[in-house]
Specification:
Blueprint: H1 2-18, E1 41-48, E2 54-60, E3 65-73, E4 81-91, E5 97-105, E6 108-113, H2 124-135
Antiparallel strand pairs: 1-2, 2-3, 3-4, 4-5, 5-6
Length: 147
């Protein structure tokens, strides 16, 4: 029994020696180590006010820039809502500049940017069908339960 325990410990320690400590140290992978983790923070500002308004800006040495502002709309009411507006800029790994703006509020998250996919236009036949449905609603039948 002691032999099996010693053998299991030896096998486990040999296997542990083969496990890389850093994900990017795995041999024969197609991943390229990035210096983004060590990019210096050039600018980092954050302001917060008691009324819920805030603003933040972060800029790094590798060209990443984020800016956001938040404000509470309709404070002290039952319909109070936080609205956040922001901008993000960076360069994609293929060298393409990415720039987008967003708004997050009671209407959801809306983003606008040149890299955001745009759906194709709705086909004319579908538009005509939707218009026909709107012009000809289904009849409403009144159902009365008999006792």
């Amino acid at each position: 029994m002691k032999f099996l325990v010693i053998l299991a410990i030896a096998v486990a320690s040999a296997a542990a020696a083969e496990i890389p400590t850093n994900y990017f140290d795995v041999p024969n992978t197609k991943y390229v180590r990035s210096d983004e983790a060590t990019a210096p923070i050039i600018r980092s500002d954050f302001e917060s006010h008691p009324d819920g308004h805030f603003s933040s800006v972060v800029e790094t040495g590798n060209g990443i820039y984020t800016q956001s502002e938040g404000v509470v709309k309709n404070p002290n009411t039952d319909t109070a809502a936080l609205e956040i507006k922001g901008t993000v800029r960076y360069t994609a790994p293929d060298g393409t500049p990415v720039n987008y703006e967003y708004v997050a509020n009671e209407g959801g998250y809306q983003v606008v940017g040149s890299h955001v996919p745009v759906p194709p236009p709705v086909p004319e036949l579908i538009l005509r069908s939707l218009q026909y449905i709107a012009d000809h609603p289904a009849p409403v039948e009144r159902v009365v339960k008999k006792p």
